[in-house]
Hints:
Elements: H1 10-18, E1 22-24, E2 28-34, E3 41-46, H2 53-70, E4 78-84, H3 93-107
Helix pairs in contact: 2-3
Amino acid sequence: MKKSYRIKKETEFQKIMQLKNTFANRNFVIYIEPFDQKHFRVGLSVGKKIGNAVTRNYIKRVIRNNLNQLDSQINQNYNVIIIARPNIVNLSFEEIKKNLLHVFKLANILKKVE
């Protein structure tokens, strides 16, 4: 995922979270903001309850890698903040992908299959 597709500024995080357009499952909470752009943008938040810095960075890498794989399925007109919950530490790569797909389906930001 290109760095230009990431949300990094706290003001952008706050703006998206204030909309309270949120969806969740056991392992993720996502906030979405409809936005007119060529590619979706993502902000990741992995809290200290999940583990030490090594574990948190690993989780972020796995989430980014899954997002790269799901890129063609995700509607491009959204800013998304993904917050990982503590249960995520015990999940495999495929289970994380399945959970991301599930929460994106709840949020209705996946492209329609024709």
